[in-house]
Every structure is written in structure tokens, then in C-alpha cells.
Input
Amino acid sequence: MPAKPPAPRRAPKSSRKSRPKRRVGLSTVVGSGFSRTSLSIPLPPQRRRFRQRLLTWYKRHGRDLPWRKTDDPYHILVSEIMLQQTQVDRVLPKYEEWLTRYPSLDALAGADEADVVQTWRPLGYNIRPRRLQAIAREAVERYDGRLPSDEATLRSFKGIGPYTAGAIMSFAFRQRAAIVDTNVARVLYRIFVGDGDPKAHAMKAHLWQVSRAVLPHRHVFDFNQALMDFGATVCSARKPLCEACPMARGCLTFASAAPPVPRRRPALAAAQARTR
Output
């Protein structure tokens, strides 16, 4: 009986072929809020298509709102504070009433706090009128009754965060400033991301990067207003109008939700072709 050949010797541990280390990115970090998608900034052709479609839509369907007819920084500030967690139809009458009673930062700064809170009702979240008055008093004391136009100084006011600062800069001072509020975040997430936790801190930071990337150099006012309108009326939270959405083609969320097109078997396809 022939002897069995000796078993191959295993290479020493130090000479084994090492496995390539797994590259850990945003999509593989546990607890990062991401799953299978690696985040990336939209490419220039994607940005151009998005801008063109959004601005075309806005020209036809943009809402006629009074704060879009002014570039007064104070008026813009009032509208933005009022619109925090409050629907547009509730803000409209209160916006006009507020500006009639407190037509300037000086008028608001010198008003009685109790009267200011009473005028705010019934919008709710009564910390907002107090913060608005505090901003007015600081503007009067430090900036001659005017709101500054640069981001750093605007954000030094308590109650003005990155979104409100961007809104004032783009709507009042016509500067190229990105915005991300709830509506804008939903639009950008659905179209350009489509996967992962939209509430994760890293995701929120990424959506700000996307907003800055897609922002045009011209028509910034219309573009930012269009983003908010689009999120409020088409790409809404509960019942988005995906079938009528001009962004559906190229939207990652819509593409992942669409049923796959069935592939016909070659033999069946050939048979059907012969009967045509």
C-alpha cells in the first residue's frame, strides 16, 4: 500500500497573505445613522438639472407670500421666527398685525414685554416673541437698530441659528447663502440621499453640504424660496406627490420605491416577437 503524501506545510503566520483591511466609511460606522449608502455630493450635471427643474417649477407654482415682496431684514426676521413650527395660513394674518403694531426693530425694542407676548397669540411657543424682542433690543443697543448682514454676527444673536441666518442673508441681503429647514432637508434627503437616518447628526451636516453645493450663483432668492415651497407642497412629509413630481426622474427615494420592471425570459420574448 503506497504511503500517503505528506500534508502540505502551512506557511508561517508572518508570511501568510494578509486580508485587506475593511475600509470604514460613513456607511459602515455603527450608530452613524447610515446604512448601505455612502454619502456623496451631487455631481455638477445633477446640480444643474435640479436647479433648472426647481426654478421652472417655482415660476409656475410658487406661492404669493407678503414676506417675498420685501427685502427689509426685520420683516424677514419676523416671518422666519413666526414660521418656526407654525403653518403659513396661521402666520399670514399675524404677520400683518405684528408689523402694523411693531413696524421696526426700534418699536419692538421699546415695547412692553407683556404686550409683545399678547400680540403674538395665538401662534403659541411664546418663547419666540421674547427672543424676537431680545434680538430687537440687542440690534438697537449694538448695531444702531439694524440687523447685520454677515453670518457670524447674525448667529451671535440668541435665537438666530444657521437656518435663520441663511434666510436673512439670502432673502434680505441677496447674498449667496444656503438654508436647511425641515422642508429643505426632506427634499435634499429624498432626492440626493434616499437611505439612512435623516435625523442623525452626520446626516444633517451632510445635507447642509448638499444645500451649499446645489445653490446657484444667480437667482439665490428664488431658489431658496422654491426649495421651501417644493418641500411644503410637493415633497411633503405625509403625502408627497411623487407621480407628478418634476424631480421623480433622478430621485433616489422614488427610484428605490418604484417596483422593478420584470425581465422577460429570452424564449418567451422571442415567441412574442414572432406573433407580432
Q: What stands out?
A: The chain has 13 helices and no strands.
